[in-house]
């Protein structure tokens, strides 16, 4: 499987070994070895089939085909392909795990960030069974707020392919 | 010769229709459905408003993760059967016989704080795991469960026969499971020579059959134990710490 460089994102080839902090504001494809941390906040990370990452990872989307040992924090979506081996906790809004992927750790599905204007404050309770992925809840911490009855972490989407 | 950008976008766009469709067909062809009284009993707890902490020690199941996280619970996944096939666990006992090093196994697996979990989904692990690991694992599970926490396990009856296939279980509703035959995940599945779970090609083999007394002994530290008989030569057992 040959891969070629693209201007759209950075590419760490399979012979590359990086130790330390990796951060950036473009999408990143890792097919080599990375130890440390990877911070991409608003961008996507793909760990290729040859990738071996020993790092905690923070990105918008994280797709794993190779191996990762460390926590994954994906603000939007985490995806474990069938060749993935993940040892660590995953914090994300949506997760997809293919058959055959190895996963050891915790899955913590997190709600989407609360939007400033709730659409209809009174209805949030009746969404309990809803499977739709986006059920933003009006901020809950203020004590009296009737609308925000600490709705459970409801917005999970796990896809098996 | 797909470019990196192409494969990159494909990963985040979701799978293409043909590959997704192909896999789906295969899976649905392999999966069987069964009713589970144990799960039905457990499902009452899933309705809890309080988020529960649940440990699934079966084969990684996206369906189970989805089912539980949709209900607001936290899920920990650890495939102990797979972990028990790590060749590094094999040591020789004093007679030179290969055995699995249970201390090392527990140092590397099930490393959780005491009384962390409300529920443990054990599935059929005890039937297929190497003998030397079963009791230590159950003892560790006891410590990781909260008082009042529950554990669901399945045990084959004698009638199931030695070739009873090893299934993974996917929760599809409050009392229904989908069963999928487990195939070897990796080729280096080599345990001690006598460990029957190790043949790589055909998946795991039944190691032994527990009778009711064995099961009661295995869980003797737990406060209660409930048996559910099923039609498919499996006993479902729900124990409470």
**Ends apart, CA distance between termini of chain A:** 22 Å
Oligomeric composition of the shown chains: heterodimer
Shape of chain A: globular
Structural class of chain A: mainly beta
Main sheet attributes: strand count, strand direction, barrel closure of chain B: 6 strands, mixed
Shape of chain B: globular
Share in β-strands of chain B: 25-35%
Q: Hey, roughly how much beta strand do the residues of chain A contain?
A: 35-45%
Report on this structure.
The complex is a heterodimer of chains A (161) and B (241). Chain A has 161 residues and is mainly beta. Chain A folds into two domains: 9-109, no CATH class; 112-161, no CATH class. Chain A has no helices and twelve strands. A six-stranded parallel β-barrel of chain A has the order 6-7-9-11-10-8. Chain A starts with 8 loop residues before the first strand and ends with a strand. With 241 residues, chain B is α/β, with parallel strands linked by helices. Chain B has one domain (35-240): 3-Layer(aba) Sandwich (Rossmann fold), CATH 3.40.50. Chain B has helices spanning 4-13, 17-30, 37-46, 62-70, 80-83, 102-108, 125-128, 131-144, 212-218, and strands at residues 32-35, 53-56, 74-77, 90-92, 98-100, 117-123, 145-156, 167-173, 176-181, 224-229, 234-240. A six-stranded mixed sheet of chain B has the order 3-2-6-7-11-10. Chain B is globular. The N and C termini of chain B lie far apart (55 Å). Residues 13-29 and 186-201 of chain B have low confidence and may be disordered. Chains A and B meet through strand 10, strand 11 and strand 12 of A and helix 1, helix 2, helix 4 and strand 3 of B. Strand 11 of chain A pairs antiparallel with strand 3 of chain B, so a sheet runs across the interface.
């Amino acid at each position: 499987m040959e891969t070629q460089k693209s201007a759209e994102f950075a590419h760490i080839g399979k012979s590359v070994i990086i130790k330390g902090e990796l951060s950036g504001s473009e999408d990143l494809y890792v097919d080599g070895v990375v130890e440390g941390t990877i911070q991409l906040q608003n961008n996507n990370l793909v760990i290729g089939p040859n990738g071996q990452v020993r790092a905690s990872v923070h990105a918008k989307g994280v797709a794993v085909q190779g191996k990762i040992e460390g926590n994954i924090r994906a603000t939007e979506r985490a995806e474990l392909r069938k060749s993935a081996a993940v040892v660590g906790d995953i914090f994300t809004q949506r997760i997809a795990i293919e058959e055959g992927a190895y996963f050891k750790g915790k899955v913590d599905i997190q709600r989407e960030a609360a939007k400033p204007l709730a659409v209809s404050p009174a209805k949030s309770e009746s969404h309990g069974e809803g499977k739709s992925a986006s059920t933003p809840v009006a901020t809950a911490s203020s004590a009296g707020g009737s609308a925000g009855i600490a709705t459970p972490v409801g917005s999970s989407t796990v896809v098996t392919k | 010769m797909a470019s990196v950008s192409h494969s990159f976008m494909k990963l985040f766009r979701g799978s293409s229709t043909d590959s997704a469709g192909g896999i789906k067909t295969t899976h649905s062809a392999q999966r069987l459905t069964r009713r589970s009284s144990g799960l039905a009993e457990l499902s009452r707890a899933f309705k809890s408003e309080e988020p529960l902490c649940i440990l699934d020690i079966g084969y990684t199941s996206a369906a189970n993760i989805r089912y539980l996280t949709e209900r607001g619970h936290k899920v920990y996944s650890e495939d102990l059967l797979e972990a028990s096939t790590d060749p590094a666990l094999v040591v020789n006992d004093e007679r030179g016989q290969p055995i699995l090093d249970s201390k090392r196994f527990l140092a590397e697996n099930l490393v959780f704080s005491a009384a962390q979990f409300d529920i443990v989904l054990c599935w059929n692990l005890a039937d297929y795991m190497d003998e030397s690991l079963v009791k230590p694992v159950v003892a560790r599970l006891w410590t990781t469960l909260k008082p009042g926490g529950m554990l669901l396990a399945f045990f084959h009856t004698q009638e199931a026969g030695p070739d009873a296939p090893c299934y993974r279980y996917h929760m599809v509703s409050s009392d229904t499971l989908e069963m999928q035959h487990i195939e070897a995940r990796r080729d280096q599945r080599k345990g001690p020579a006598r460990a029957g779970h190790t043949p790589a090609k055909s998946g795991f083999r039944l190691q032994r059959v527990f009778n009711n007394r064995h099961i009661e002994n295995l869980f003797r530290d737990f406060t209660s134990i409930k048996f559910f008989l099923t039609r498919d030569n499996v006993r479902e057992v729900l124990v409470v710490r």
